[in-house]
Amino acid sequence: MYPKQQKELVARKAAVQLVTVTDLFPSFEAVLRRMGLDQGHMHSIYRKKVRAMALRHALSAKATAKELVIIDDASIKSPKTADLRKQLAGLGITNCLVVSGSLVEENFAMAAKNIPNLDVLPSQGANVYDILKRHTLVLTKQAVLDLEARLK
Q1: What is the fold of 57-150?
Q2: Which of 56, 32, 70, 26 is CA-nearest to residue 151?
Q3: What residue ranges do the domains of the chain occupy?
Q4: Which of 63, 85, 95, 152 has the largest CB neighbor count within 10 A?
Q5: pTM of the full predicted structure?
Q6: Tens of pLDDT along 18-59?
């Protein structure tokens, strides 16, 4: 970087001031202190709210685009990849994320492991990145209940 550009960059950085919540609302800092909280704690609360909002948005985007399938349960009798491929082909699914209940059935997980473009997660592991990465989202009824409780 040339010296002139470097001076301009330093000047721009000095001109930018970070504004915090306590700068805008001085009484907010006193409220936080009375509650025994600091600003870092509030940032973690905001991060959780933003994550929940993003998950709601991703789920509603899949529902709006008709890329959401709800099944009774994600189970299979034997851990055979061919059997699971047939079931998915019957539903017309080639690229999907399956979110099961609190636990993923072992046979289903073993059969799904060898299929490309198929991810299986428990309901606690559902996240925005994995939901948007796959074309179709397959939820079990238990996963729907778990996600609904998680997003309340």
Answers
A1: Ribosomal Protein L4; Chain: A; (3.40.1370)
A2: 56
A3: 57-150
A4: 85
A5: 0.69
A6: 445 445 555 656 666 666 666 566 566 678 888 899 999 999
